Every structure is written in structure tokens, then in C-alpha cells.
Amino acid sequence: MTLAFAAGVGDVGSRTFDDAGALPVVAPPAFCARLEWGVLLAGRGASFGLDERERARAVHVEQDSTFHRPIRPGDVLTTRGRVVAIRKTSAGALVTTHLMTTEAATGAPVVTSW
Q1: Residue 49 — left, alpha, or beta (φ > 0 → left; ψ -120 to 50 → alpha)?
Q2: pTM listed for this prediction
Q3: pLDDT greater than 80 at residue 54
Q4: SS3 call for 76
Q5: Which of 34, 68, 80, 81 is the Cys-Cys partner for 109 at CB 3.0 to 4.6 Å?
């Protein structure tokens, strides 16, 4: 999955795409969004009572991620999220979420995103 993601975003360097190289492959940093997106989609609408038309108009505005260690192929990770704020704006509502991706076995942090 990490190699396919790297190819899809054009990040085909030796660290992210060369699985026969001397260095171990790591996922491109943007791969964290792939892990987080399912959590966001699962909660979007159900938590706020949005209909299909409203969900289709949602926009991802910004993201601030802290990487505690690289994501590697073969990692077994868990991503959880929670809504921490909802604020009315002229365009609708701004929802702030806190997402945590951790090692499934140990709970050690891998990526934290806001």
C-alpha cells in the first residue's frame, strides 16, 4: 500500500519506492492521510446529522501532523480520532479533529494530526 501511494503521488525516491534498495522503505509523509481518512469518513455526517448533499460539500481546509517515527510497510497501526471543536463560520461550520495513529501492539505514537 505504501509503494502504491508513493507511486500515485509521484514520490518515487529511493526511501519511498525502491524496495530493493539498501535503505528500508518508509511511507511518504502524506500517507498518514490515507490512514486517517477512513476515521474521518466514518464520523462525518453520522455525528452531525448531515445529509448526502451536505457531506458532498465538505472541504478539508488544513492539517498539522507531527510524525513521531516513520511509517513503514508491514506496520500494524491503529488510527483513532475525536472532534475537539466546532465553530460557526460564514461558509458553514469549521470542525477541528484530533487524530492519533499508534502502533497497534504497544500504543506507541506514530502520527498525531490536527
Answers
A1: left
A2: 0.82
A3: no
A4: coil
A5: 68
